[in-house]
Design a protein that fits this description.
single chain; about 375 residues; alpha/beta; Rossmann fold; 6-stranded parallel sheet
Length: about 375
């Protein structure tokens, strides 16, 4: 079948993207789903820094590629062997397809699936296939999803069924911003109720982590960013204090506010300097969690003696250390119960035709989560 998709053909075009237009809406050929795959009519897809990092070259991927990894839609067709989903099901995509039988999957850590990582790096589906084509040859898949399109073929293992009455624009948020931010707090950190928290980087993922900390009745929730508007938003979301990361004494401010530092600091900015700051505001015996994705060349430095003598912990968090089939439904339950108001992350609804300009707003920090709605 033919479908319309936002195709990236060249990495590193300069901003403003509304002028350079790195994403072009094109008609592409989409093969039917193969074994273990599903055809989905995409209804909503969120814009994330992980998409922007491909556009600007911070995380290079093979091109041409259809971007978009935070998506929700409706199943239109299932391939051979798919028994967990049926036509008409409403689904959310998770951006790591889990094979279910590699070492990490067997250990209950599907976010670290080895075949899934290899497929995502190569721009294929979990099967190793590419179902997207144009007149010149194959078009790559982004993180097994390619949600900036009217239709997509995905591995069934990339999809989680969700309630049919959940609005698509809200459902899409659970595929990345929510599962990553909330998961970092609930799963990676296993944060206990009433702990003290700092969140460095207040995009969609960081604010989702902040909402999770508030849900767990954190004693202190310190929001840290260089963007004054985002600091104000964090206050509205329930942060007990806000500190500008650009202040020379930012770490000292946080330690003073929290009587020596926080028990859990979450770095969500995708920069080594942000991780260093998160580490500096973590107290003795505390845990620093990083879910931000920086350029592969970035390095951080930390005092070895401090790490040992203060019994610090540094943890990475990918996909919120989640089991999507378990966690997406329970996060939706928390949202519907009023405990986790993630709909507040949705800052703007846009058309697919306006996607380039929307990435300018994302790059400028002028939005939390923009969602493309596709009728």
């Amino acid at each position: 079948m033919k479908t319309t998709a936002a195709v990236l053909r060249e990495i590193g075009r300069p901003a403003p993207y509304a002028q350079s237009r790195p994403l072009a809406l094109e008609e592409v050929e989409l093969d039917p789903p193969g074994p273990g795959e599903v055809l989905v009519r995409i209804r909503a897809a969120g814009l994330c820094h992980s998409d922007l990092s491909v556009i600007d070259g911070n995380r290079p991927r093979p091109v041409p590629m259809v971007l978009g990894h935070e998506a929700a839609g409706v199943v239109e067709e299932t391939g051979p062997g798919v028994t967990t989903l049926a036509r008409g099901d409403h689904v959310v995509a998770a951006f790591v397809p889990s094979c279910g039988h590699c070492g990490p999957c067997d250990a209950g850590r599907p976010a670290l699936c080895e075949p899934g990582f290899a497929a995502n790096s190569a721009g294929t589906l979990l099967s190793g296939s590419r179902r997207l084509h144009d007149a010149h040859g194959p078009v790559h898949h982004h993180l097994g999803v390619s949600g900036f399109a009217r239709h997509a073929v995905l591995a069934a293992n990339s999809l989680v069924r969700v309630p049919g009455d959940l609005p698509f624009a809200e459902a899409a948020l659970f595929g990345c911003a929510v599962i990553t931010g909330v998961g970092a707090v609930v799963n990676t950190a296993a944060m206990p109720r009433g702990a003290s928290v700092a969140v460095v980087g207040l995009g969609g993922v960081g604010l989702a982590a902040l909402l999770a900390a508030r849900m767990l009745e954190a004693e202190h929730v310190v929001a840290i960013d260089m963007n004054a508007a985002k600091l104000a938003t964090a206050r509205e979301f329930g942060a007990t204090a806000a500190v500008n990361a650009g202040d020379a004494d930012a770490a000292e401010q946080v330690r003073e506010l929290t009587r020596g530092g926080v028990a859990f600091a979450f770095e969500m900015a995708g920069a080594a300097r942000a991780l260093e700051l998160a580490y500096r505001v973590t107290r003795r015996g505390g845990t620093t969690v990083s879910a931000g994705l920086s350029h592969a060349d970035q390095r951080m430095s930390l005092p070895h003696l401090n790490l040992v003598a203060e019994e610090r912990t540094i943890k990475g968090s990918y996909l919120g250390s989640c089991v999507p089939a378990r966690d997406i439904p329970r996060y939706i339950e928390w949202y519907r119960a009023g405990r986790l108001p993630v709909n507040r992350l949705l800052s703007e609804r846009i058309r697919l035709e306006d996607i380039n300009g929307a990435f300018d707003r994302l790059a400028a920090g002028a939005s939390i989560r923009q969602v493309v709605e596709i009728a």
